[in-house]
Design goal:
The complex is a heterodimer of chains A (about 230) and B (about 240).
Chain A (H helix, E strand, L loop, with lengths): L10 H37 L4 H15 L3 H11 L2 H14 L1 H27 L3 H9 L4 H31 L11 H11 L7 H26 L4
Helix pairs in contact in A: 1-2, 1-5, 1-7, 1-8, 2-5, 3-5, 5-7, 6-7, 7-9
Chain B lengths: L1 E10 L2 E11 L4 E5 L6 H8 L7 E6 L2 E2 L7 H6 L1 E4 L11 H11 L5 H14 L15 H14 L4 E5 L7 H16 L4 E4 L3 H7 L2 E6 L2 E7 H6 L6 H11 L2
Parallel strand pairs in B: 3-8, 3-9, 6-7, 7-8
Antiparallel strand pairs in B: 1-2, 1-4, 4-5, 9-10
The chains are: A mainly alpha (about 230), B alpha/beta (about 240).
């Protein structure tokens, strides 16, 4: 039988090793969600524009990123962006935290491809008459999108956007590949220090489950509350 | 005030408007009627360039809609439009529906916009609904709010695209009452509608369309009073809708 020993796992150990990892994972998820939705919305607008070259560019972006495994994209971005770039945007902090920053950049661009498809569906779910109505009162394209279409698209798609974010939160564990210090890495580090590499995986999985599952429940409750009455 | 000059429009190879010409003077109440698919709604949507035209030109208050230099949003902000399906903004309260374009397009201050919006809401008899959302109102009420929204912009002309077609029969009257009131106050109006009672009561000109062409363009009295002078297609249409 397995001979499991969790006695090493006390609050002091958790606080110094795992909590910083959790905070980073949450930060990565939140920053990526905001950045990814903003970038994704722009890509979606490009894809729905009347200019063929914009449509093409957006389609290539989305199709490419959705056809490559995330792990490879993480490795590529990490290896391709030179240290000088991080030094330029964040000084010595940037150089010291290269994997963590690389992960933020990678995830933002990668998730934008998925958010873009969600926002595209959301924009298309707003009836054409709403666009006409916006134009008819004198709005420009930008005003019509910002004030009329996107708020409705966003509301229609909020549950799907949040569900994608939960997937994103789980995917952030892949940054172990470039050595970023995230939630999982925190557990793995403790496992190494106390020579308990198998034991730490169980509480790690339990934590990911509890966080993701409660967020799913939250989304389900939210879903029924935010619907626009038509 | 509005001059429609020899306009034609195609969807791909299908021609929806063929060489349509008419004019609307200040204070005119023009009713556009005709069988479904005859291009009435398309015609009215070309007036504020919601539907582009491929030939001809439309001059609205001295401004050409096909001139590349024309600021279309600015032009549209002076032309009120009411849609068949109301198209209120469902994510905004009635007050916000009335003030949004005033603030963002006309650059009015919030207080001024609210004052103007409330005046128009009162005019359509719905002041009590100002804090509700469109989805909480009946179809007739939504359409009256939509009229108030258009009026809040102080338009020089109002376009109505089948404003009562999507309404329950018992709500048609309340919307028509508002429209009659507007017409009697001298508002320039172009209305696509099947409401011949409305046409008889307040219009001064009737345009009859069939298959993308303007078949009749005459005074109301000619259109209803002198059926023998009408084209066969218009006569047939009239005989069908007037016998009830």
């Amino acid at each position: 039988m397995l001979n499991l020993d969790f006695s090493f796992l006390n609050w002091a150990v958790i606080k110094s090793n795992i909590v910083p990892g959790l905070l980073y994972s949450l930060q990565l998820t939140l920053v990526t969600m905001v950045g990814g939705i903003i970038l994704g919305t722009l890509v979606a607008l490009m894809r729905l524009s009347s200019k063929p070259w914009l449509q093409r560019a957006a389609a290539v972006y989305v199709d490419t990123l959705r056809s490559i495994p995330l792990l490879m994209v993480i490795l590529w971005f990490y290896l391709l962006i030179p240290t000088g770039f991080y030094a330029a945007i964040a000084g010595s902090y940037g150089v010291d935290h290269r994997p963590e920053l690389a992960a933020v950049i990678t995830f933002t661009f990668f998730e934008a491809a998925y958010y873009a498809e969600i926002m595209r569906a959301g924009i298309q779910s707003v009836p054409r008459g709403q666009v006409y109505a916006g134009y008819a009162v004198g709005m420009t394209y930008a005003q019509c999108m910002r004030l009329v279409v996107l708020p409705q698209a966003f509301r229609n798609m909020l549950p799907v956007l949040l569900t994608q974010t939960i997937v994103l939160f789980q995917d952030t564990s892949l940054v172990y590949a470039i050595g970023a210090y995230d939630f999982l890495k925190g557990f793995l580090t403790v496992g190494q220090i106390y020579n308990r590499p198998d034991e730490v995986l169980l509480p790690a999985a339990a934590c990911y489950f509890v966080i993701s599952f409660s967020l799913s429940m939250l989304v389900r409750r939210l879903q029924s509350r935010i619907q626009i009455i038509r | 005030m509005i001059e429609i000059k020899n306009i034609s429009k195609w969807y791909g190879n299908f021609q929806v408007l063929t060489d349509c010409t008419t004019r609307i003077n200040k204070g005119d109440v023009v009713v556009v009627c005709g069988p479904s698919g005859s291009g009435k709604s398309t015609l009215i949507k070309t007036v504020n360039a919601l539907e582009p035209i491929q030939q001809g030109d439309i001059i609205v208050d001295g401004t050409s809609i096909s001139d590349k230099k024309t600021n279309l949003p600015k032009l549209r902000s002076r032309v009120g439009m009411v849609f068949q399906h109301f198209e209120l903004f469902p994510h905004l309260s009635i007050t916000d529906n009335l003030t949004l374009a005033q603030i963002k397009v006309l650059g009015r201050g919030k207080d001024e916009a609210i004052k103007r919006g409330m005046k128009m809401l009162d005019r359509v008899g719905l002041s009590a609904q100002k804090d509700k959302f469109p989805g909480q109102l009946s179809g007739g009420q939504q359409q009256r709010v939509a009229i108030a929204r258009a009026l809040s912009m102080d338009p020089i002309v109002m376009l109505f695209d089948e404003p009562t077609s999507a309404l329950d029969p018992e709500m048609v009257g309340e919307v028509l009452d508002v429209m009659v009131g507007l017409a009697q106050e001298g508002m320039t109006m172009m209305c696509v509608t099947h409401e011949m009672g409305f046409a008889k009561r307040v219009s001064n000109k009737v345009i009859f369309m069939d298959a993308g062409k303007i078949v009749e363009d005459c005074s109301k009295d000619d259109f209803f009073g002198n059926p023998d002078a009408r084209s066969p297609r218009a006569k047939e249409f009239l005989s069908k809708i007037l016998q009830h």
